[in-house]
Write a structure and sequence with these properties.
By secondary structure, the chain is an alpha+beta fold. The chain is about 55% helix and about 10% strand. It is elongated, with a radius of gyration of 36 Å. Mean pLDDT is about 80; it is low at about 1-10, about 95 and about 565-574.
Amino acid sequence: MAEELSQISVTEFENVWTLLLSSTSIQAAFVVLLSGMIGIATGYRKFSRWVTSQKFYYTRPHVSKFLRQAALPFFAITLITSFNVYMQFTLGSAEIVHVAAEETLSKILNTFNVLVIGYTVAHLIPIILNKIEKTKLEELDFDIWFEMRGFSDDTDDFFHKLYKWTPPRTAPVEIGAERFTELLKTPEGISYLEAFRTSKGVSIGSYEKIQKDAFEVWKQSERDKFAKYYNDCTSGDNQSGRKLKPNTIPREIFSIDVWREEKRINGYDYVVPGARPSGYMARKKKDAPMSLQRVLPLVIFAAVGLGVAASWGIDLFVLATATGGFSIGLGLALQETMQNYFAYMAIRKDKIVVEGDRIKLESGYNGNVHKITPRVTYIMDALYESIAIIPTRQLVASQVVNYTKEHHVVPASVTVGVSYLNNPRQVASILHKVGKRAMREIVDDKGRHMIRQHRCPNLDENKASCGCDRDVHESLSQPLVRFTNFGDSALDFTVMVYVRNYGAQFKTKTEMRVMIYEEFERYDIRIPWPIRTIYNSNEAQEREEIAKRNEAREKLMEKYSVFDIIRGDEGTEG
């Protein structure tokens, strides 16, 4: 088997050893080669530390990584090639007869060069692919910046330095021609029209480029923001109150790629320098799932290794046959591991599930996807009370309900029962008012509306949209009020609105219940106790008390119409 596997003769290497012992000049050159390799490795470590301490390591991370990966192989290849040329020159001039040994030694040195080049290429290609991916994300950030009409950390109305708004030729129906003409006469009116959305949620007018290459100008402005962030970190003008040093462990200064990622996570808000605790970046890198780019170097270097083996005369077919039995046994032992890995690759490629999605497993467990790895997936309970760890293959092999993927609206409904003595038409109007209040008033900690709507209420005050009207293509008719049932003790009603995401419904329903309590108290709508009430002579008195505010409720019905039950007796069948 050994003879079939390789055509390499042990005598060839013995001749090389004899060749090295035959000349002191060759021995000295070999010592220089080894010393040079050690010197290059030592110098490379110092060079790497120097690079990571420089500003361009943070502003140009891909260029700096490329230089670090290419520096060591460049000097190593130069040294090995020089040694190879020297050997050939020395052997040729001395007229030594060891031709076979010379060829073998040259082949060994060339093999080292090929392996070094293969190692370098295997690590440079992922850097290039990562740069391409980051460039695509940067282009996506620009599109979002344009859609948002600028980020919150822009200065001096930067958006309008690149784009000029042009009004439509015809007036929107919701504004009218006369008012539209008046608004065009003042800067405030033009700003109002620029932010205006029609009843269908569509903006009016168009934008014309002022700068020829707006993307490059915007990209430079983002780099200027990062430069300020870096200077604030290193100068001590940051939230930590001290000068943060580059090239420290754990790292406390974001590179520009991580800085952009932080902006995306936080809705493109300003990234506060020194706000994250020490070790945040290390933990973030540790929690990052393994990507294909981290596996690619192993694949490329293995391919180079097989090529080198073939160049030495090793029969790859015989090698594969010799290791076939071992491979089959290993494959059976790693069957589940490989299933998880290929499931991970499919999830990443098709974006079936991503970190942050709210999902429900077939077992009934409901939570947010915290991290996906090639082996297991971590799903965090919404209240952080537990974490489910499941094999990654279950995300594609079993039924999973995704509440987030391509789903921009989630219903939030509140059910309430009222006394049989209340007019259901009046109650429906009050609940409709509650829904309208909720759409305007319920916001998150950043002041953004939690309820989806076709036109953001901020636009009525000539403010920028908070995004509650973004990506809403469904025909939403809300709030929805329904008289659902004649209960044992009450008339049951449901009021429903649509919120941003799965988690937003809980705060929304809490706030709506408070509003219902306030409005019911204001209009004397009574919520009965869940008991059977026996009336003697108090029913007439209670009707009389309720009737005192009937006029106010009737006026409310005129303003907040809900559905057919509100509109009187027109069209009544019978």
